[in-house]
Design a protein that fits this description.
Number of domains: 1
Number of strands: 0
Largest sheet: none
Strand content: under 5%
Shape: globular
Distance between the termini: 46 Å
Helix content: 55-70%
Number of helices: 7
Length: about 170
Amino acid sequence: MNFRIKKPQQLQPLQTPSDYLAAIFSSLGVGYLPWASGTLGSLLALILWIPFASQPFSVRVFALLLVIIFGTLAAHRAIRFWGEDPSQVIIDEVGGMWLTLLFVSGQPICFWLLDFILFRWFDVWKPPPIRELEQLRGGIGIMIDDLVAGLYALIVSTFIQIILRGLALL
């Protein structure tokens, strides 16, 4: 994989079964919607996380790692037919959102919504180094900015929960 700074390339049509598999996995269908694909992808990620929330931590980490690895590979392949960082690819939102939700287990729904809002805020705002990481080429460039946004959201959400516990509001 080439991880250098992005440059224009010639797009190719979907041709092979692995092209179609990459298109399906990287978009999860939601990426084809003409508007708000990032927000809808993050919402889909939240819904897809529900069965994992009650699983042991190791299962949640394993699921996240699978999304990161296969999402990066699928996003990298999708670049060939959709171009660099296409709106159709939402698997990066799934990875980032799942990282944000990694410690959500048995918590009230308000924390799920807080995590969703925080992730979307960091993903749209792109504070340093997120914007710079977005410039990397390939699937890693597509995935890494959302993973860092997810990490930022996780840190802020954890900090908010610690404060609320300290104030005996939880």
